[in-house]
Amino acid sequence: MAAVAAGLLATVVGCKEKEPEKIRIAMVVKNLGNGFFDAAHTGAMDAARELKDVEIIYTGPTTPSAEGQIEIINSLISQKVNAIVISANDPNALVPIAKKAMARGIKVISFDSGLAKEGRLMQLNPSNADLIGLKQIQMASDAIGGKGEIAILSASAQATNQNIWIGVMKTVLAKPEFSNMKLVATVYGDDQSDKSYREAIGLLRSNPNLKAIIAPTTVGINAASKAVVDEHLVGKVFVTGLGLPSEMAGHVKSGAVREFAIWNPIDLGYAATYAAYDFVKGQSTAKPGGSVAAGRMGSIALDANGEGAMAPPFTYDKGNVDKFSKIF
Description:
Largest sheet: 6 strands, parallel
Helix content: 40-55%
Structural class: alpha/beta
Strand order of the largest sheet: 2-1-3-4-5-13
Number of helices: 11
Shape: elongated
């Protein structure tokens, strides 16, 4: 009987050992302690709960550097994770380690800040340049009744994404529906709070008929909003652009900002996790014209470079900014 019992015990233990292992998806962010990526982690956990057989490993360097991410990816290769989802601190420096991971059978996709094409299976953009540029002009137009002078406060003059968005904004302004809006100045704050504030003050003082400032940068929109308050121009000049709810809630309440936008990082983390899962399961191909399934976010089409975009930037205003300011 003892032998039979022992045999049964061995069988039970053996069954437990054969339980299917969870698919381990590592989310490697630019740096830990960043509210945007903490929110993306929340979305990844939402996806894991829906998929049921997924374990999320959330990691990143303490300060944003390519070297820190390379060290982390090396460790993840040793751990034999199934997939790596990364927001890259450098699109090119991370390619060799990403290729090493893929050579070991790990599915690598990038999101938010992309890896160069040869270093990943796909890049998930939170939005695209056309949607981002159009959205900002639309918000400015709504704030000023579609008529008046506007200015742009950007990051640095060399910022690739900012310059692309500004180019789109200028194209959008040429459309008939925005013909009563005039772009009178574009200035650069180099994503430094003090300089951005000074540039915003300069715009307000040198353009007395200015109706709106568009800042496609989280640093710039915060600084411009403060400048409008300090110059006692609330209700006369409106600020809009791309900002973080946690930084913009007060400016919405002050009246300096009617609405602003940024992609929803919860949805971004959620969709990136689903995309990685699809690749692990062999359900996706990063071919032109292909697509990945992204749960509640629907299907995301891939272009010739294996890049997909989710949706227009998410809009925040007095109705929802408090809710999201607690998240990021």
